[in-house]
Amino acid sequence: MSNANLPPQKQMTTMLGHPVAENPIDQMFDEVYAHYGLRWQFWKCDISSENNIAAAIAGIRALGFAGACITVPYKIISIPHLDEVDNDVKAIGAANYMTVKDGRLIGHNNDGKGVVKAIQKITPVKGKRVVMLGAGGAGRAMAVELAWAGAAHLTLITRRESQGIEVAQTVTQASGVPAEWMQWTGEVLVPDNTDILMNATHLGAAPELEPVPVRWELVSKRTTVVDVITNPRITPFLKTARDKGCPIVDGVEMLVQLAMQIFEEWTGIKPDEAVFQRAVAKSLGE
User: Fold this and answer.
1) Is 150 left (phi over 0), alpha (psi -120 to 50) or beta?
2) Which of 70, 87, 195, 224 has the most CB atoms lying inside 10 A of its own CB?
3) What is the pTM of this model?
4) 133 and 86, same structural domain?
């Protein structure tokens, strides 16, 4: 049998994080790979300790993976273990996926690009005052990208002062947009004139479905409310906002927007958004 008659080589992709069980990304990517006739497969790898992340990343290269996503809590501490990072990672200080080129692992960050595209389907970002709850690896990327997209001001509300101040400084340094930190203690008091309110924490994710402690009477109905959680699509945070009459943006929409870019980087195929939307809906049993 000649090599020309052999089927295309099977390619493996993965996501490193903890926890990963509830994330629908593997089923979504597998559906899209199948749609485009690719012999590719997506695995989720639960790395339970940061002590193992260096070995896990080295395994991406050793096992010949075509690419990998990086999720919480490893978006920042993974960077020293990569061979190279792009300008977005340098500015943001976190990576959410990697490409593999000639055996070299190259870190990228499009978390913020996904959230900006998702929000702009509902409301413009330019000139808006944004309040973000949490500022981890995904949150810091989103904060910077929102500033780059023209947000007028960002307020970062976190429990850890050092984290909030550092990310606020990163936003202003990268974009020139003013950003400030507020302490998260007890119920969140949303500042007046907030145009976009975003939950960038894990509160509300399945299976716990913890509510985000917000004083909702202080949130205007004109405020667009955003959640990064992908499972469930409508979190307790978004349900409360929707019931109040606020426009909402769910984390699944963000996932679709960033996943399409990652898919194109890995495969060289520009995907149809409808394919991704059907795939993620199927993976969530919708």
Assistant:
1) left
2) 70
3) 0.90
4) no
